[in-house]
TrEMBL record:
It comes from Chryseobacterium taeanense. Residues 5-164 form the Pvc16 N-terminal domain. This is Pvc16 N-terminal domain-containing protein. InterPro entries: Pvc16_N.
Length: 181
């Protein structure tokens, strides 16, 4: 699912006039490798994943009704709701082209901040990080700083593809008296 969301970002950016077919989903940390193919590209890299804790308490039981009468419940595995943090970096030969590309990325996602993959809608918003954290991230990715923007993608739902478990309702209780001495 995560790869599909990042592909939607890539496809959204690749249709733009200034970014036509130069946007790729890859690890920007490989930018110095001659065989990476990341020269003169705008690279989308997944930096972090976090669970959306506010969505964690949803009920796992779905009530199945016949008319207005409940007949059973289905127990579903709990989906994981995730926020994705991505970095979009312009690895261009000319610095001015990199600045133009990052400006275009910001423009596109400011005007179109709700995207969709099949029936899943997700929101993308610019995410600011302090200079210390930015330095740390670029240090982990190889040290060469280039024009980039960080985005938070909210909320991606990942659920197991397993059938729900049927749970029958208790419709009769048989109580026998127990005598305690």
């Amino acid at each position: 699912m995560i790869d599909n969301v990042l592909t939607v970002l890539k496809d959204t950016l690749n249709v733009a006039t200034d970014l036509h077919d130069i946007v790729v989903v890859d690890n920007i940390g490989k930018h110095e490798d001659d065989t990476s193919g990341l020269d003169n590209k705008v690279v989308i890299t997944l930096v972090s994943v976090e669970e959306e804790s506010t969505m964690k308490n949803a009920s796992r039981y779905n009530q199945i009704k016949t008319g207005n009468t409940p007949v059973r419940y289905e127990l579903e595995s709990a989906p994981a709701y995730l926020n994705l943090y991505v970095m979009i970096a312009a690895n261009r030969t000319r610095y001015s082209n990199a600045l133009i590309n990052i400006s275009k990325v910001i423009e596109i996602f400011q005007t179109n901040n709700v995207l969709q993959y099949n029936d899943l809608k997700f929101r993308i918003e610019l995410h600011s990080i302090p200079f210390e954290q930015l330095s740390y991230v670029w240090g982990l990715l190889g040290g060469k700083v280039m024009p980039s923007a960080f985005y938070k993608i909210s909320v991606v739902k990942i659920a197991a593809d397993t059938p729900p478990i049927n749970i029958e309702l208790i419709d009769e209780v048989d109580i026998k008296s127990i005598k305690v001495d």
